[in-house]
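During data preparation, a discrete fold description was generated, and the record follows.
___
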Amino acid sequence: MGTLYQLQEPLTDLKVTLQDNFLVFPSEKTDRKSMFLSNIDKVLNFDVQTVHFFRAHDDYPPQVVTEKIKNALSRVLVAYDYLAGRLRLSDGGTGGRLEIDCDGSGVGFVVASSEYSLDEIGDLVYPNPAFRQLIVQGSGLDGLGDGDTPLCIVQVTSFKCGGFAMGISTNHATFDGISFKMFLDNLASQASDKPYLAIPPCNDRRLLAARSPPQVTFPHHELLKLKVKNTGSGPDLTPPPVFDCLNDTDLDFKIFRLTSADVLSLKKIAKTGTNPDTASKATITGFNVVTTHVWRCKALSSRETSQNPDRTSTVLYAVDIRSRLDPPLPRSYSGNAVLTAYATATCKELEESPLSRLVEMVSEGAVRMTDEYARSAIDWGELYEGFPNGEFLVSSWWRLGLGQVEYPWGKPRYSCPVVYHRKDIILLFPDIEDDGESSAAAAGRDGVNVLVALPHEEMLVFEKLFNKFLA
């Protein structure tokens, strides 16, 4: 049965001292140009922060690692020239389209140290708010003028044990999770002084441009229309970010751990009673059964459900569309190639339906994401300003593989996002690997940690339901 994650009280202050900060530029001259951003990129105009922890390595003390990361970053920026650019509106004012000015302005680089050892800062799996100290915000960099905000900042923080953390902040308009992992593979290859990138990026965002004229051929219930886009000479305002990363107050937050056995049990329950007529739509994957389990618990724990059991609940989750388009996108596509899928049911259905039927509903969201549906969603973004619309979003870092990137000093001890607790986002992320565990062994584990933030009374109900539906 799933368990609550047990941990010691985390440190609230990592005692981090910033020692230096500067800009890193491409190692070779790059051409000045404007990069078109797709409608998917445009709506994701907010920062995503991750931290990658590394053990001490005799051959790579922190000062050597810092220099290697800085030099590798400079080299990789030749292929990722847009990352050294700045967001701009195409006409320089309020009437243009959001794009990246690839002007070589540079990415931020910060050198820091902590008074603690890596072991002393606590459980790395636990999303400690203090991890924010491991990534400086753009406003913390010296010498930047108004509007001169780097699209990427890297911070290397050394610990007194010789271990270190690499914190990375990127604007989501530059990468989705899959392309960010490719970027890390390329950074690691350059840190290893290889003469080539692991996966040369495809930077052509026009591969996901809207059709002309736009053709919205499906009802997009997963998208909220804010206003009709101004097609004249008036302003084309950048839409608000999706699930703006602001803290909710007065929320409890807990981590629910599902072991490999728990996930396997959910799969077996989902396969029992699956309707043969709809079985082809029901893909019984670990992600689908965990998302369904979380959806059911989240919807039924809401105060609104107790007042109205017939209310409708909609869960949102991201689907990679690279292989779903015709022709498929290159595997190395470096932009955002994910769209929001959804499943909708009444809370009464969520309580009374067998797991198999609910997993079918979640599966149908991904099945729905054909080439034409994806193109229709992209065209929808050309006509309207808006963003995904649902009760909550399941954000999965579970199988991105950030912890499998092989640097000269080894794989990370753990890689994780810096978490901002939100009631409308439930986060899935992997467990920490055992020391000495092989990549094959790690790949064979299917356990997952589920981070939930809810008001106290709702959290009590969520926990009861989480265990009830696992039994």
